[in-house]
Design a protein that fits this description.
By secondary structure, the chain is of the alpha/beta class. The protein is elongated. The two termini are 30 Å apart. Strands 8-16-15-12-11-9-10 form a seven-stranded mixed β-sheet, sandwiched between helices. It folds into three domains: 108 residues, CBS-domain, CATH 3.10.580; 228 residues, Type I PLP-dependent aspartate aminotransferase-like (Major domain) (Aspartate Aminotransferase, domain 2, 3-Layer(aba) Sandwich), CATH 3.40.640; 136 residues, Aspartate Aminotransferase, domain 1 (Alpha-Beta Complex). Strand 11, helix 10 and strand 12 form a beta-alpha-beta unit. The structure holds pyridoxal-5'-phosphate (PLP). The site of pyridoxal-5'-phosphate has 14 residues, from helix 7 and helix 8.
Amino acid sequence: MSINRFLVRESDSLDAALKTMDANGLGLAFAVDGGGRLSGVIGASDIDATLARGGSFGGQVSSAMRPDPGGLPVDADPAQIAKRMNGKGYIVPLVDRERRPVDFVSPARMRRIPVAEPVLTGNELKYLSECVTTSWISSQGPFVRRFENEFARLIDARNALAVSNGTVALHLALLAFGIGPGDEVIVPDLTFAATANAVIHAGATPVIVDVGAESWNLDPEMVAAAITPRTRAIMPVHLYGQPAEMDALMELAERHGLIVIEDAAEAVGARYKGRPCGSIGHAGAFSFFSNKLITTGEGGMVVFQDAQIAERARILRDHGMNPGRRYWHDEVGYNYRLTNMQAAIGCAQVEQMGRFFTRKMEIAAAYRARLTGIDGLRLPTEIPGRVNSYWMFSVICDLARLGLARDDIVSRLANAGIETRPLFYPLHTMPPYRGYAGNREFPNASHLSDGGLSLPSSITLTDAEIDYICGVIARLYGTRRLVQRAASA
Ligand SMILES: Cc1ncc(COP(=O)(O)O)c(C=O)c1O
């Protein structure tokens, strides 16, 4: 982006300044005087204040701007720039000797803030080196069992099996319970497609049900309405780390003789009434993909309440080979094993889980403190008795109020160096899954998905970056509110 997209003349109207601010997506413009010299800065709040004093959109920029935004010389050295970026101002104009703006610096030009990135600063390298120096690089190595035990302890589960990823964790859980052709499994409409894929791979039929408007997760009443004589299992997903309504789902399952397989891929650390998510149902599946709270690059874990079922899963994980008779196969199995190298990374990650989790809670609290009260921006609901692990801090934008499509919001934030992620598309809208929607309706999943965004949620996120992100969002909302007001004026 060029500095020209931020420049307005002092004599321009506020309406023209608003258009510039809206078009650059950052809700900010710099004013220049008749000689093209930098003279002020103007944002949505300045226009708001002028209107409140009785001004109008036709008034001049000079009546609303704050004087002298204090640019930096165009040949400023990086240390000067860094110092200035840590102080006031997200965007700093760079000026020539006559104070004419020629360029700018912004956080976006210095770093793109990612939605999620792994942190591998513990014993990862040390443990990995051990795998290499001892030649234990396949799934037959000591870190695999150690990772299973330490992860099981972390989430208060009994029988844990490390597997190649979260999708096969779900698949293996279904197979271990003998769920397959002719069986129905209830899944939420708003989830990552792997939830439904695992059911389809098992040969069973996913039955897609809408989610609750507040919980964003399976709604027990809607689940109850979808149960048929063919239903074998319910697969609640703890979406973005928000625990699903487990008591009611477990009670439903018990009443109807159903299995509950928790898709806790996104919910390491989340708790429902004090119990870790993933350890409440008959089985729980986790993902350790690189954007998850604990990662092994690719990887997963499946835990079972019942040791016998877990044993069956262990055999299926290893080609269906009879554990007492090498190379004798009683059934067709899979190779779903995790390598010792991945497990080594996993062990190092588990050691840091306390620190990771604490930071996630701080990030969520910081977002909440700064974003609460922005009209037309919904934050995740805090539900009593549930600890959201905030894998992704996700918000729902009121698109009508903003007058923007979700992708416009994504690209405006991307211009500001802020990576975001749209919420998942509802399953029922995508070709492979449409046939599993029956004649049910999905207003909640559709609404959430339409305006939903996940904000940067890495534990590497700094407080200054959270301030910056929230400032950009607030200015986006402020600018759009004014644009709408100007249009109706
Ligand atoms: C809800 C949900 N289920 C399942 C998975 C699958 O996990 P994996 O990518 O490790 O296969 C994911 C992955 O992100 C997920 O978000």
